[in-house]
TrEMBL record:
<feature type="domain" description="HD">
    <location>
        <begin position="39"/>
        <end position="125"/>
    </location>
</feature>
<dbReference type="InterPro" id="IPR006674">
    <property type="entry name" value="HD_domain"/>
</dbReference>
<keyword id="KW-0378">Hydrolase</keyword>
<dbReference type="Pfam" id="PF01966">
    <property type="entry name" value="HD"/>
</dbReference>
<protein>
    <submittedName>
        <fullName>Putative hydrolase (HD superfamily)</fullName>
    </submittedName>
</protein>
<dbReference type="GO" id="GO:0016787">
    <property type="term" value="F:hydrolase activity"/>
</dbReference>
Length: 204
């Protein structure tokens, strides 16, 4: 990807289009999880160093940008189409744009590439893991465990807006067992707890 289209530019666009703190944090969380899958895929392909970093960049960017237009254009008619149109005008690579379109079930864009599958698989899960962290007394992602996440997934009243079928379907798309998928994203978010605002505080 061109230097004009890296994660710094993606983050700046997210901040420009999205003023709400929780939606900004959601974009960062999805980016962190999607990037983790990009790193796994780069390793599987035998990429290292600068080559691996270049491979991973679109994953991080797609995560940051997937909901950038949602605050201004939340309707099914407009999201994510308005954002993608703007990104296309700026010259962003089609690989990133296709992934953003494919994360919306109603866009008609199939999830074919690994990036497209990873973004879809991480979107709802990142939100769910955030919710799991925020109900902890410490409000820390570091206190969340996979077993607890699985239990919360069965509780329909908890984070009811999160589509459980997208989490399970995303794991299937990636060919990863559900428990492993939950662990992969949880680990990625724990490693970046600070930038997600989920490091929490000690419980006295």
């Amino acid at each position: 990807m061109s230097e004009r289209f890296g994660r710094d530019e993606a983050l700046a666009l997210l901040q420009e289009w999205t003023k709400g703190e929780s939606l900004r944090k959601h974009g960062i969380a999805v980016s962190v999880c999607t990037e983790a899958y990009g790193r796994m895929e780069a390793a599987r392909l035998g990429l290292a160093g600068a080559e691996a970093e270049a491979f991973v960049e679109p994953y991080a960017c797609a995560g940051l940008l997937h909901d950038m237009d949602y605050e201004r254009h939340p309707s099914l008619e407009e999201h994510p189409f308005v954002g993608v149109t703007h990104l296309r005008e700026l010259g962003w690579p089609e690989t990133v744009l296709q992934a953003i379109l494919a994360h919306a079930d109603y866009s008609g864009v199939a999830r074919a590439s690994h990036l497209e599958k990873a973004l879809f698989a991480c979107d709802e899960l990142a939100g769910f893991l955030t919710a799991c962290a925020l109900v902890k007394p410490s409000k820390s992602i570091n206190d969340v465990e996979v077993a607890g996440v699985k239990k919360k997934m069965k509780d329909k009243a908890f984070a009811r807006a999160v589509k459980r079928e997208d989490i399970t379907g995303g794991a299937e798309l990636l060919g990863v067992p559900l428990e492993e998928h939950l662990g992969n994203c949880l680990q990625a978010m724990q490693a970046r707890a600070g930038c997600l605002g989920l490091e929490g505080s000690p419980v006295i």
